[in-house]
Amino acid sequence: MRQRTLGGTTVGAVGLGAMPLSIEGHPDEARALATVHAALDSGVTLLDTADSYHPPGGRTGANERLVARALATYGGDRDAVLVATKGGRGRSADGGWTVDGRPGHLRRAAEDSARRLGGDAIGLYQLHKPDPAVPYAESLGALRELLDAGTVRLAGVSNVDRAQILLAREILGERLVSVQNRYSPAVRDSEPELRLCAELGLAFLPWSPLGGISRSSLDGSSAQEADPRFGAFHRVARARGVSPQRVALAWLLDRPGGHVLPIPGASRPETARDSARAADLVLTPEELGELDAGEL
What we know:
Helices cover 37% and strands 15% of the residues. It is built from ten helices and eleven strands. Helix 1 (29-41) packs across helix 2 (62-72), helix 4 (136-149) runs parallel beside helix 5 (162-172) and helix 7 packs across helix 8. The radius of gyration is 18 Å and the shape is globular.
């Protein structure tokens, strides 16, 4: 698999978002573990999780425990895998999402995540979302303390704007290595943040990277094919004999700066393998032009 650099660590250019394996509608454990193993066998070496990835009323850290079990039962090279987790969000009883950026909470959450994941320290710890009730600098200060204590090796921020990225860089310095924002064929409003990451040398991890494509069938027609924003992904996919999802991920990998590292979710081994193959799909300038023409 093509490689990317994340804070001095080399990882496969396509990661795996583990969220679908533990939230509502998740597969049984056997299939979930098989999905992670299929991704790892395909060259994926970045696994993205969070302490809040569980069904309403479920146990905090369910997805982290699943990732830890998947690695413990994997027969390949586990040392090459970087696990990224997040703290600062939770689930409400009605299925909603809460946010808690208090420094004390973040310190406890990171320490709990480290215990669930095992190992000496969390590979990459990301603030899940700014808390409007807490000054962002205070939340970032907690992350700096976790870095200083060795609980966390690398730091990232998520769901942020340009000003918040710059503040994180000021407080965390070179130990800030990544930004995780929503970005996909359907949602491109993080373009300014993507460009800033390229300028600062930060990895950009788009979450929900298959937005606009994810509901399409791998081998059938879709109403989205008629949408000018997404139809090009289907046309290129048919011409190449691959899935539109694979084309969408290859398009993301070709965003300017060479710093984008998509983390598509999967709940079946076959979709994990298909996503991983996007790292080896090199699109032509003509194809990229056609895909870019659908920008909002």
